[in-house]
Amino acid sequence: MDTITTVQKELLDTIHFPKQEVLSDIEQIKQRIDSAKRAMLLGNSTDNHKVKIIFEDTEGMKMIETTVWGVTDKYLLLKRGMSLPLHRIHEIL
Q1: Which own/partner pairs from 17-21 qualify as long-range (CB within 8 Å, at least 24 positions apart)?
Q2: Residue 37: Cβ within 10 Å count
Q3: Domain boundaries, the chain
Q4: Pairing of strands 5-6, 61-66
Q5: What's the pLDDT at 81?
Q6: Cα angle at 13 between 7 and 17, to 5 degrees?
Q7: pLDDT at 73 over 80
Q8: How are strands ordered across the β-sheet holding 61-66?
Q9: Are 6 and 77 in contact (CB under 8 A)?
Q10: pTM of the model
Q11: Measuring CA to CA, which residue among 75, 84, 53 is closest to residue 66?
Q12: If you write DSSP's letter for every residue of 42-61 in order, what string do you get?
């Protein structure tokens, strides 16, 4: 597996995301959606629980630890108007 680089969520605006889906299995994609919804529930709880998100940009695998505020059909919504394309996320822990 590739080395995973930890990045700050404030740098998401500088990251370039290809249009291709990173997951090849439909079950993995369904699991990612379930994980995204769970992360949103944790983020909107009174504790504002953070999750680790492993994603892939044009340079390789990266990870951020942040609070998820919302989920759309295409994006995870984070603090300060930041977003992360769902199709580039490998895993939400």
Answers
A1: 17/57, 17/58, 17/85, 17/88, 18/57, 18/58, 18/88, 19/87, 20/87, 21/87
A2: 13
A3: 5-92
A4: parallel
A5: 86
A6: 85
A7: yes
A8: 5-6, 61-66, 51-56, 89-92
A9: no
A10: 0.91
A11: 53
A12: HHTSTT---EEEEEE-SS-E
Whether 49 contacts 58, CB under 8 Å: no
* Cα–chain center distance at 69: 11
| Closest to 70 measured CA to CA, from 41, 33, 31, 32 | 41
- By CB atoms closer than 10 A (0-12, 13-18, 19+), residue 31 is middle
Residue 18 in tokens: 């290809």
Rounded Cα distance, 32 and 38, in Å:
10
Length of the chain: 93
Distances in whole angstroms, Cα of residue 87 to Cα of each of 24, 45, 46, 49, 76: 10, 25, 28, 23, 10
